[in-house]
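Posting for a labmate who doesn't have an account.
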Amino acid sequence: MPEFLLRKARSHAERVNSNWQAKFITRPSVETPPADSVWLQSNDYLSLGYEPAISAAWRNELGQGGLSVMMSAVFEREGNLAGLFEKEIARHMGAESAILCQSGFAANCGLIEVLARLGVPVYIDFLAHRSMWFGAMGGGVRPVPFLHNSTGDLEKRVRRHGPGIILIDSVYSATGAVAPLRDFANFALVNDCVLVVDESHSLGTHGRWGEGMVARDGLEHLVHYRTASLAKAFCGPGGVIVGDYDLLEMLRFEGAPQVFSSATLSCNAAGFLEALRIIRRSGARRRRLRTNAMRMRRGLRDKGLRLGNTESQIMSLYPGPEKTTVAVKSFLEKRGVFGSVFAWPATPRNRSLIRFSVRQDHTRSELQRVIDACGELALEFNVQLWRPLAEFARPESAVKTR
């Protein structure tokens, strides 16, 4: 093999052996997890993954040949299940139109790549999902980052570079922070900018009917485009874009995921339709989710953990260096608490974290077990020195660190 490839392989091996104790950092550190372990890794916030009606919808469509059509999305016929879901999800979110995509990543990349070709600046929150960065760069634009959740810092950059496209998340996947959506929507309106909001972690979980934060706050007319992964509350492999009809129709024929990748299978669309029906009548699940998230945030903060400005069902611990994160992960897993490790390239280098995703079906005793384990953690580690990821969100270094 060429030396440059060998150097890369050696560098990764050194990282695994030195920082990760010779075991992949995202895998459990204990051979046999306790039977009563608390798992906080899934984004199935409403616990729809084992819903019989969704499984039945998949099976029924598979029985009708739901795996038979393997082709680019650009060739899809009108009137199929994907088209029906697009109409239903657009109506659900209060939008003109929708496109079903292969994933949330594909949704962001496809939409933003096309928008970036307009030749205007692309402004992106430092902590926005990486797929948004890829979309901008895929459109030939070097994104202009701004301080996390700061319309003030964004204003400075718009004054310098001019009107453009603003990219934010409604709920940030690594930190659980919530965007001040109304502030950004009003800013985009006054400054003649396009606003794109990723609602992956608020679609299904926020709003009276699970319509997401934008529609919940009555901002549909001010937010130009919304994207979402359907692998969270909708518990299936897919993504969606909602917004203006004319641009989305153009996107069907110009977006790279639509042209160069196979369409979402009809069995997936059948599952999404059933999931949407359940989500719309899952107000009790959303209330339990909010209660569980609030109980968990309060309990962890009472134990001395710094969680940053999370206001959602996502909360993270911030050990920082990978060696420390591995030690914290092992400490928690020995006590039956399993979160998700984020490390570079999912975070800036040496700013790794452990994310907890709370679900509506976590019991009070399970949450208390996590809180107690983190209380022991606070006594064992110097957690007051841990700094939330947003404190390192410096736009000048964003492109390098991501």
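Reply:
Got it, the structure tokens are right above this. The chain has two domains: 21-46+283-401, 52-280.
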